[in-house]
Amino acid sequence: MRIYLSADMEGITGLVDADDVQPGGQDYERGRRMMAEDVNAAIRGAVAAGATHITVNDAHGPMRNLLPEALHPAARLIRGKPKNMGMLDGLTSGHDAMLCVGYHSRAGALGVLSHSFMGHEIEDMWLDGRPVGEIGLAHATAAALGVPVAVLTGDDRACEEMTEWDPSVTTVAVKYAHDRFAAELRPADEARGAIEEAVATGLAGTRAAAANPDPAVLAVRWQSASVASVLQGIPGVTARDSRTVQARGALPGLYRQFCVWMRVAASMTNQRPYC
Length: 275
Description:
Mean pLDDT: 95
Distance between the termini: 42 Å
Number of helices: 7
Shape: globular
Low-confidence stretches: none
Strand content: 25-35%
CATH architecture of the domain at 2-115 and 134-204: 3-Layer(aba) Sandwich
CATH class of the domain at 2-115 and 134-204: Alpha Beta
Strand order of the largest sheet: 3-2-1-4-7-8-9
């Protein structure tokens, strides 16, 4: 069984603030250790379920948060950037299931460290007219490849968002949002035990899915009209209004194009994400 694990950081056990998840933050070094422990719990569960090949993609920020020496030896790590597929780099139709560890709710939701990909630079996103963030777009991209999402971990709002997309996905809430930078935390050992158990049982119940080649429409509303204007220079990108662009295409190609949009936006801005 080949397993793909995408590891974000905002939804990791115990983390609630930008200083926990951004390099240079006063608690970042602790945060990256906490991230490794949640990921390792998921890897242990995958091994218990019979996984023979586990790929972990460091999907947060600089994508150099997980220290290779801290990772369970059963997994291979994809580390660093740029990556053509960003948070989903390395995911292929050859994987039997995907795990989303440390994920967070989309922009506008009152979840811990909620945002969509680029902090406040992205105000809203829609996939085929449906509000979407990192969770929904990851799920849709995996589905397009025929790879089922088996388990998602994060705060309770992230879990609710995943359930709205696909109620068959097993979710593990490691904290309960009180606001965007405050949460009630599950004890670390309890949370990691729940992750390990959920992955072991969730993978055992995962069924193969048919790939979905149908095209989709992705629309993104940016904070800056300048970003939207520049993106219209990319073939196939059109404007909905002065700050919203859209494109139509089949996933995962559409996801890869969105990663290019983010690189363009990042080159035009230097604002910190959690304002």
